[in-house]
Structure formats: C-alpha cells, structure tokens
Amino acid sequence: MVKAGAEDMIKDENRDPILLAITGASGSIYSFKFIEILRDLGQEVHLIVSSTGEQVSKIEIKEDGFQALIRMAHTVYSPDNLAAAPASGSSRWKAMVILPCTMGTMASIAHGFSQNLIHRAADCFLKERRPLILVPRETPLNRIHLQNMLLAEKAGAVIYPAMPSFYHQPGNIDEMASFFAGRLAEFMGLRVDGLKRWHGID
Ligand SMILES: Cc1cc2nc3c(=O)[nH]c(=O)nc-3n(C[C@H](O)[C@H](O)[C@H](O)COP(=O)(O)O)c2cc1C
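^ thats the input. predicted complex w/ flavin mononucleotide below
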C-alpha cells in the first residue's frame, strides 16, 4: 500500500465541500471575497443564503455582485429546504462558515432552535463535532448577544468576528475584505498565496 504524502492528504480533505451560509448582517463583501478565494484554490463550496442575507447582499454588493457570488458556488440550497443534504449529520463537509452571521442566527444556533436550513446545518455540525465558524457583525453588543456567543462557543463553534485590520495598510475596501477573507481561509487550514504576511519590525 502506498502511503499518501501530506499534500495528497490535504487534497483529499479538500474534496469535502465547505458549507458557506450568508445571513442578513452587514458584510457580504467578505463572503464574496471568501468564496472567490476558495474557488481559486479549487475548493468546492456549497451555499445557503437567508432571505435577509439576500436582501442585504443586494444592497451592499448590488444585484450583479450577488449573482456573481451565487455563480461561484457549486450547489445552492434554499434556506427553507430542511430536507436538503446539510440538514443531516451524515453528509460530509470540511467545515461550515456563517459569514456574516446575524445576532438572530447566532441566537437560534446558541439555543438549538432550527427554524431554517442554516440553523439546522449548524446544529448538525455541533452535534457531529465538526468545525463551525461563526462570523458575527454587530455593534454595540448587548448582553444577550454576548451570552449567545459564549453559549455557541461552549458548544464547539468558533467565534471569528468580522473585524478588519489595518496594520497591513489596505489601500481600499477590496483589499481590506480580501485580507480578512484570506486569513479566514488560512484559519481553516487552506494556504492562500499572495496573502500579505507580517514579517516583524527590526
Ligand atoms: C440593511 C440591513 C443591515 C443589517 N445589519 C445587521 C448586522 O450587521 N448585524 C445583525 O446582527 N443584524 C443585522 N440586520 C438585521 C437582520 O438582518 C435581521 O435580524 C434578520 O431577521 C436576520 O435574519 P437571518 O439571520 O435569517 O438572516 C440588518 C438588516 C438590514 C435590513
């Protein structure tokens, strides 16, 4: 038997799709950049967009941007279809990312209240102990938001707030969002070439 090298193992891992959900918080440019990076890496992405997620995306990245984002997904599920593959713990995924994640979706996940396919899929990821990354965007945060984030984190989710950074000197919003999305992809174990890295100050 020939043992797979590390590179082959990564390729194998990459065959499992990433489940991306977009909910109705501000920040759909992050999901656009994220899916673009994954597409360029050859990583299959399956997508669920909540109805408010679609509404807010169309405000922020316009109809054309939203349609381009949808086209980058391998499969798109309706958030109302609770019989779709992500509703079952038996389907295979590399990870699930909710980008951006509203406080409403955060609350549903934290309390196991599966009202749509996004909540149900997240519930499955938690019960199956699979990587679930929630990217909230809200400010200021009330105590309910904070408690729900802690509950979700205690149940196994990673809270990865949509907080852009400035130390890499982004020249525009595009660069700011790309850097955030690239860091998120690397957090998930993917290698993103061309990402500006900090090399320290002598
Ligand atoms: C333009 C717009 C921007 C919004 N921004 C946020 C936000 O940044 N964070 C948030 O938690 N909710 C935000 N909301 C509210 C959510 O969209 C709303 O709570 C919705 O019910 C969430 O549903 P969903 O989680 O199924 O997408 C926004 C709504 C609109 C219309």
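Residues 23-26, 50, 52-53, 56, 59, 102-105, 137-138 surround flavin mononucleotide (CB under 6 Å).
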